[in-house]
Design a protein that fits this description.
The structure holds 2 protein chains of 2 kinds.
Chain A: H1 10-31, H2 37-41, H3 43-53, E1 68-71, H4 77-86, H5 130-143, E2 150-155, H6 162-173, E3 179-185, H7 194-197, H8 203-209, E4 213-218, H9 222-234, E5 240-245, H10 268-277
Helix pairs in contact in A: 1-3, 1-4, 1-10, 3-4, 3-9, 5-6
Chain B: E1 10-12, H1 13-27, E2 31-35, H2 39-42, H3 45-50, E3 55-57, H4 62-74, E4 78-84, H5 85-89, H6 93-102, E5 108-112, H7 130-135, E6 141-143, H8 148-160, E7 165-168, E8 173-175, E9 190-193, E10 198-202, H9 206-219, E11 224-228, E12 231-233, H10 237-247, E13 249-257, H11 262-273, E14 277-283, H12 293-299, H13 304-315
Parallel strand pairs in B: 2-3, 2-4, 4-5, 5-7, 6-7, 10-11, 10-13, 13-14
Antiparallel strand pairs in B: 1-8, 6-12, 9-11
Helix pairs in contact in B: 1-8, 4-6, 9-13, 10-11
The structure holds thiamine diphosphate and magnesium ion.
Chain lengths: ~290, ~325
């Protein structure tokens, strides 16, 4: 795949997102361990980013002009690995090695320099740390007068970590408008719905009060994702947060909007049903 | 003591935590539990469902959890703060240092999913430095029980005893082999086997590995003493010095970085009181990775095979 392979149409992007969901199910079926809910719920956003919105090059993952992606919620790594594989960063067959010993597809993203996959800047998995790093990179890029964008993907439960709000203040104070934070707002975390564990609403008001520009999008509407992120890329003067309304486990009926699927893989039978609901695509499976 | 090496009973140590919590909750109304969105994993959900008024959800906020626990202790409660080993110690280290250890608050930090036992989750979730971090703090008592029965006793005892505690246990099922009726005393090493040629000083998950190794070594004519250090701090100096006098070779066994954990603790004691030839079975100053617990114990050389290799290296029989 060459640099910036744009999938031209909304239909094609949706088909790729469905393929990535199939890949996630197949990876988890082989690994028999790992997270289903978050990865399925963010497949549309990852597809839009890597197949349309970002300036990235699979053949030169650390090119000077790349847009930076930080996955602060390392546990949804399967969607990132599947997307990177479909985008040509790693061989598609490597998806078989998720969470296996001596592999690169670590349970939570490992640094590429030691044993992770290309495209990953540094480790994540311990929640709440990504936004600070994204702010740091945004400040560094601005110092060098570079146009690169920095994307940070966060969970809604993750926003309960205090460090997030320290970074929210730093970003606003320094007006890092080259930073786009995307919050996967699925109202689910491990123990229960976010509202039950530790309420975060009204989330948009919180960010506004901290001097951020707030945008919202339907995280499963491809056109809406493209339009919102493009608008965010052009926004000037403040850091931007996009609150993405999503459903955990999106695409698999019995997982949808159910927090119990946060950290579970499907069993064989559930996997079969999932793969029936997510119809095969022209891109083909890796198994 | 005889152990069933072929077919040991397997039980989760975190279940011992849950079982002890239920007993403590019904006996002592001052016992309260804090949850950080991992209550299903660390099994505090059992306490939450039984005593909902005494369970406080703090969200994914470990630093806040430790601070809240310290505040509850000021108010006369006995707070039990629980999370995965790494996020219970590494993330809120300064909060533990100032608000719990230095201030000598009656807070019990009980961590599940410790060491390499979280396997496939990988390095970010494998706490291989937690014992070192907690042992470093003045006033902190550090308990590393070796199985279900001992974890149950450790939890009961830490709540009965005033002061800051760190208790370390695991996610997966592990052999349950200690006598449930044997007395358990904080700070007193458990002698599991006597021997003359070498002492294996083990802790946590590695106690069972040490026992297995001893069984094999005895068949090769090597007499092995096995000590379980279930209290890393305060450590049982007398038991260690006595063992060093008896065997002249001491090998520590732990699922933790070699620096700062059990090896460090034992070396500190023996270098001062009874300089002795020592070696270690521990993680070699490296981070872990994804894999099953067994695969990782083999790859990172923290199992019975490695213990046997180290013993034979020194005794060259
Ligand atoms: C510092 C830290 N504390 C706890 C955890 C355990 N943990 C992993 S994911 C998760 C829930 C995250 O919720 P959210 O951000 O909403 O992600 P989702 O469940 O929607 O995928 C928790 C508590 C962790 N990885 N890091
Ligand atoms: Mg969520």
């Amino acid at each position: 795949m060459s640099k910036n392979p744009q999938l031209g149409t909304i239909e094609e992007l949706n088909e790729m997102a469905r393929q990535i969901r199939r890949d996630i199910i197949n990876m988890l079926l082989i690994a028999k361990t790992g997270h289903s809910g978050g990865p399925l719920g963010t497949a549309d956003i990852f597809t839009a980013l890597y197949f349309n919105l970002l300036n990235v090059d699979n053949e030169n993952p650390y090119a000077d002009d790349r847009d930076y992606v930080y996955l602060s919620i390392g546990h949804i790594a399967p969607v990132w690995y599947a997307t990177l594989a479909r985008r040509g960063y790693i061989p598609i067959e490597e998806l078989k090695t998720l969470r296996k010993v001596n592999g690169r597809l670590q349970g939570h993203p490992a640094p590429f320099k030691t044993h992770g996959v290309p495209g990953v800047e540094l480790a994540s998995g311990s929640l709440g740390q990504g936004l600070s790093i994204a702010v740091g990179t945004a400040l560094g890029l601005r110092l060098d007068k570079k146009p690169n964008k920095v994307i940070c993907i966060n969970g809604d439960g993750e926003l309960q970590e205090g460090q997030i709000w320290e970074a929210v203040m730093t970003a606003a104070h320094h007006k890092t408008d080259n930073l786009i934070m995307i919050v996967d707002k699925n109202d689910c975390q491990i123990d229960n719905r976010v509202q039950k564990v530790m309420n975060l609403d009204p989330m948009a008001d919180k960010f506004r009060a901290f001097n951020w520009e707030v945008m919202e999008m339907d995280g499963h509407n491809m056109q809406n994702i493209l339009d919102t992120v493009n608008k965010a890329k052009n926004f000037k003067g403040k850091p931007i947060v996009i609150i993405a309304n999503t459903k955990m486990g999106r695409g698999v009926s019995f997982m949808e909007d159910d927090y119990r699927w946060h950290g579970m893989p499907p069993n064989e039978e559930q996997g079969k049903i999932a793969l029936t609901e997510l119809a095969p695509t022209k891109f083909g499976d890796f198994v | 003591m005889k152990f069933n090496f072929d077919n040991p009973e397997l039980k989760e140590t975190r279940q011992a935590f849950a079982d002890a919590l239920i007993k403590l909750g019904s006996e002592n109304p001052d016992v309260v539990v804090l949850g950080g969105d991992v209550s299903g994993s660390v099994k505090t959900n059992v306490f939450r469902d039984a005593f909902p008024d005494r369970f406080f959800s703090v969200g994914i906020a470990e630093q806040d959890m430790i601070g809240t626990a310290a505040g509850l202790a000021v108010a006369g409660k006995i707070p039990i703060a629980s999370a995965y080993g790494e996020f219970a110690t590494g993330r809120p280290f300064d909060q533990i240092r100032q608000s719990v250890a230095y201030s000598q608050m009656n807070v019990k930090i009980c961590a599940s999913h410790c060491g390499i036992s979280v396997g496939p989750d990988g390095a970010t979730h494998q706490s291989l430095e937690d014992v070192g971090l907690m042992r470093l703090l003045p006033h902190m008592t550090v308990l590393t029980p070796c199985d279900y029965n001992q974890t149950y006793k450790a939890i009961m005892k830490c709540v009965e005893t005033k002061g800051p505690f760190y208790v370390r246990f695991y996610r997966d099922k592990t052999p349950n082999f200690t006598d449930p009726n044997e007395e358990y005393e904080i700070g007193k090493a458990q002698i599991l086997k006597e021997g003359k040629d070498v002492t294996l000083v083990a802790s946590g998950l590695l106690v069972w590995e040490a026992l297995k190794a001893a069984e094999v070594l005895e068949k090769d004519g090597i007499s092995v003493k096995v000590i379980n250090i279930h209290t890393i701090k305060p450590i049982d100096v007398d038991a260690l010095v006595k063992a060093a006098e008896e065997t002249n070779l001491v090998i520590t066994c732990e699922d933790h970085q070699k620096q700062s954990g059990l090896y460090g603790a034992v070396a500190e004691v023996l270098s001062l009181h009874r300089p002795t030839q020592m070696d270690y079975v521990a993680v070699e100053d490296t981070f872990g990775e994804s894999g099953t617990m067994e695969e990782l114990m083999r790859k990172y050389k923290i199992n019975d095979e490695e213990i046997i290799r180290k013993v034979k290296k020194h005794l060259k029989k």
